[in-house]
Design a protein that fits this description.
Layout: H1 2-97, H2 101-107, E1 113-116, E2 122-127, E3 135-139, E4 142-149, E5 156-160, E6 165-169, E7 174-178, E8 183-189, H3 192-203
Antiparallel strand pairs: 1-2, 2-3, 3-4, 4-5, 5-6, 6-7, 7-8
Length: about 220
């Protein structure tokens, strides 16, 4: 009987050994499988948590840029508006300064230079190179910017509408008047050309309509 049991145990021993060997890899595989799912959930929330603050920073930066853009747009609009206003103003000034052909013809007859006047005064008339037909009329205590005005008598007339002054030029002399004050600022002013005419008039005075007619023989 003992021999039979011993023989049976000897036969079963290899089977137990094989069963234990097979169980150990299975246990290791189960342990690894259990460890992997546990590790993944821990890693994912960490990544998401790290990503959220980054998104928050990006969202915070975006409104700042938008705000800066909003500030830049009004500045650009103001600059464009100011530029357009300046262009319109320059166009109006140019239109006001433009002279007719008749006025330009009068301007060509204006005597320029430093002219002596009565009582030791002087008047200087200078053409404006930037604006054809316009003149600077200067003297002691006054300075005007004038342009020609057509007359029916043929007299050369320059006016400063803002200053209220008038420069009148005839063949033998010129004079400057302040119409607003009603006074003469300079009289008997003569350019070299006018001096020649004045001397000729002295030598051969024109006949006056008030002079009596010469007696007939």
């Amino acid at each position: 009987m003992k021999f039979v049991i011993a023989s049976a145990l000897m036969l079963l021993a290899p089977a137990f050994a094989l069963a234990q060997t097979t169980a150990q890899p299975a246990a290791k595989s189960d342990t690894k499988a259990a460890a992997k799912p546990a590790a993944k959930p821990t890693a994912k929330p960490t990544a998401k948590t790290a990503a959220k603050p980054a998104e928050g920073k990006t969202a915070a930066k975006a409104p700042a840029k938008s705000h800066a853009t909003a500030k830049a747009e009004p500045t650009s609009s103001r600059t464009q508006l100011k530029s357009a206003t300046n262009q319109v103003a320059a166009g109006i000034i140019a239109a006001e300064a433009a002279l007719s052909p008749a006025e330009l013809a009068i301007a060509e007859r204006v005597h320029v230079g430093r002219m002596p006047c009565e009582l030791g005064a002087f008047v200087t008339v200078t053409a404006d190179p930037a604006t054809p037909g316009h003149f600077h009329v200067e003297g002691k205590g006054f300075k005007y910017y004038m342009s020609p005005v057509a007359t029916t008598t043929g007299t050369v007339r320059l006016e400063d509408a803002k200053g209220g002054a008038v420069w009148l030029q005839i063949a033998n002399k010129s004079m400057l008047m302040n119409q607003r004050a009603g006074q003469r600022l300079a009289d008997e002013c003569m350019s070299p050309e006018q001096v020649v005419v004045a001397e000729a008039i002295k030598k051969n005075p024109p006949v006056s309509v008030l002079d009596p007619l010469p007696a007939t023989k």
